[in-house]
Design goal:
The chain has 106 residues and is α+β, with helices and mostly antiparallel strands. It has one domain (11-88). 33% of the residues lie in helices and 26% in strands. It has helices at residues 15-25, 77-91, 97-105, and strands at 35-39, 42-48, 51-56, 59-63, 69-73. Strands 1-2-3-4-5 form a 5-stranded antiparallel sheet, covered by helices on one side. Strand 4 (59-63) and strand 5 (69-73) form a beta hairpin.
Amino acid sequence: MPVRTGTPYLPWHDPGAATRLLRYALPRQGFTHTYQSNGDGMSAQSVLTELTVWCNDGSFVWNEEGGAPVTHPIDDPVGAAQRIAARCRQQEPPHSPIDSVSESTA
């Protein structure tokens, strides 16, 4: 499909470009080591060992801890990074003051 001159490049039409924008947004949420792989109209972003984000058909897709799929619009990589960070924060075990004291004195 031809693109007219002056038409802005829309990265969310390309899963690799959209995932790259997600990769740039993730460090702002505390994720410093991620890995991106592209191929055949789909892109994957490995965020954590237990969390991979897929990008195709206009959406970012990942699974909640229980396995339920989550979708987020491909044109909002910053929002996707925020939701991914919120998911990971929910999974962190709560720390009690006793645990902190015993760790520092051990």
